[in-house]
């Protein structure tokens, strides 16, 4: 009998997605009849707009879309993504610099797989989205955390980045607006970080998937446009999921210099080939249409954001800086760790989240999932009434902490 492990070391090292695990537990409790309110979801609660669905229905009827198409994406979609990037970010790219992927997630994997050799370091601002560490690890890269907290609204400074840079640093991962914190870098901050990266010859991988979800006075700035000095060492990741309420359609993209895009396309040609044509045609309708659907969602998210942040900050022991983008609040619950609550003493935000799920029937994602224990992530992409009810239940429970 072979004593070799059944599952490879590389794949065994991948953790279960903590956000999906919380969601699964909440759904199981719901299925068992308990009135759980979930703040775990990372997706808009709106349906995909009708004109996008119509485009998909038409595409499904066309025999040419029943066949394989180019692995890197339909030419008309690649052109539309290039045009959209020029429209929204002022960044001029050719269709040949676009690779259409199975959601933004595949773009994340392919970007790191294409750029990293074993031992190459990637600077990642924590709290970070759960998928990045796994994609970096699988590519043989080494993640170097740049930890931020509520005192700066989870924004990293050039000084912090410089302190983490070594001779092995190849890539800076720049995410604004951020999942999980909702932090948005100003134009000045973006320029300063981009210039620092350019000065040190770093690549910048920038995830722009929440570009259209910014609130109040905040503005989205594409680092690629703001810092021309970065030249051709920028890779942009994006997709239709969050802007057009299309998480289930699985269309994202990667934009970069031709050599990187060509290499990533070769990888995709052996992994998944073309993204489902029906989804690509839906995405074409989305990116070449106007932004009225996202404007409507943004107004609803903004209202819910303000309600949630106000309610969270009224809870003793909870502090939530104002998120400026995406659809998440990221409050600190550090003061509540170790306090007595319903006969228990949670020793981590993970344990506190479990207690809240059991006692208040509310699901939140603990900060452990995002590299910073002591926090919760709450999505405000859910109905106003559920939001108020859910946060009220948490407030009532946590007010008993002693
Ligand atoms: C920051 C960020 N990037 C990328 C994605 C990928 O989205 P999708 O694969 O659904 O397009 C997500 C989804 O949660 C995200 O939060």
Automatic annotation (TrEMBL):
Looking up CDD domains in the UniProt record yields: AAT_like
Aminotransferase class I/classII large domain residues are 35-389
Pfam families, sorted:
Aminotran_1_2
Q: Which UniProt keywords apply?
A: Aminotransferase, Pyridoxal phosphate, Transferase
The cofactors required by this protein are: pyridoxal 5'-phosphate
What is its EC class? Answer: transferase
Which top-level group of life is the source organism from? Bacteria
Q: Which GO terms describe its biological process?
A: amino acid metabolic process
Q: Which Gene3D superfamilies match?
A: Aspartate Aminotransferase, domain 1, Type I PLP-dependent aspartate aminotransferase-like (Major domain)
The EC designation for this entry is: 2.6.1.-
GO molecular function, one example?
Answer: pyridoxal phosphate binding
**Record family assignment:** Belongs to the class-I pyridoxal-phosphate-dependent aminotransferase family.
Instruction: Give the matching PANTHER family.
Output: ASPARTATE AMINOTRANSFERASE (PTHR46383:SF1)
Name of the featured protein: Aminotransferase
Originating organism? Nonomuraea jabiensis
